[in-house]
What does this fold into?
Amino acid sequence: MNAVAEFSVIPLGVGVSLSPYVAECERVLQERGIKHLLHANGTNIEGEWDELMEAIKECQTRMHEMGVPRIQTSIKIATRIDREQTMAEKVESVKEKLTKE
Amino acid sequence: MNAVAEFSVIPLGVGVSLSPYVAECERVLQERGIKHLLHANGTNIEGEWDELMEAIKECQTRMHEMGVPRIQTSIKIATRIDREQTMAEKVESVKEKLTKE
Amino acid sequence: MNAVAEFSVIPLGVGVSLSPYVAECERVLQERGIKHLLHANGTNIEGEWDELMEAIKECQTRMHEMGVPRIQTSIKIATRIDREQTMAEKVESVKEKLTKE
Amino acid sequence: MNAVAEFSVIPLGVGVSLSPYVAECERVLQERGIKHLLHANGTNIEGEWDELMEAIKECQTRMHEMGVPRIQTSIKIATRIDREQTMAEKVESVKEKLTKE
It folds into this structure.
């Protein structure tokens, strides 16, 4: 089952700077070869459901290993069986509507 | 890794009534013996990370089998290694603060 | 425009205990007379869109006044114009489906 | 109070194609001159809390006017008082950590 997802991690108990932890998650995605796009409010990913979920779990595990006592993660994950649709196509589809008028 | 989570599914392309699909997800949780609490904006669950994620995936799969072409799911999942904390304890902890004053 | 919503606040830079801040948000809701239900992963609220959003903003402001340097808040908010539906009715609607089978 | 936010709207009861509605929300943001970035799982926005929330509300209202009976919107909104931080700076901050190693 293919999915388009977004996740964001919020480590608690390590101060206000989250970037070292988000960077570690980026490394997880790079190592696993998962297509991803970091943006200001999370990271977009696409691929097989299990691959995505395992990556998110590894990200969580590694952050705990870095010493984070508590983590709140939020995930949006979308699947469709009527047709395939990549992240790029989702954005493209909106942009077409915008330029038509 | 123990987790406290919440998920909500939004089936698209099947009209405005979501309850048959949410009910199917409740059945998945019951069948799997996962502690869960349905509320107005999602379902709270607690247990092992993998158990929770597999249940959410089965819920997604079953909804597609019911004919839902597209599903948007949102998940909040929290882990902590400093101490164990159940869903009930999270609520209790806030209520204590409220009654103290 | 009536809405059913859920919000959860994550204060950063104040350690791992979130309950004092969640409790403060509960007080905001009580003071404003907004119907609310605290659960393990957030607080459900219902009422006029503007009332709900103002309450969430006050909650955010008060947490900063308590000394929280950074806050991540997540909100789900749902509106429908086909019919009215309260939080209680949303849950009831799923439970009916469950008992029918 | 300045905020960095993300929102995504899910119209129900209008089939599986969401792009016309997301496009309408993009128009709202353009008309209001709010800095925004559309991505595969939502739209990132930044500005004054009230400006952002009013834009999201107008987006919701317009979608109902387009005939959408039911809408589920999810919002992440973050504020910080320790320092200012734009959306671009949030991403930059993670990228610096990545290239350092």
Summary: Chain D touches chain A through 35 residues (CB under 8 Å). Residues 2 and 82 of chain D are 12 Å apart (CA to CA). The mean pLDDT of chain D is 96. Strands of chain D lie at 2-12, 35-39, 42-48, 70-80.
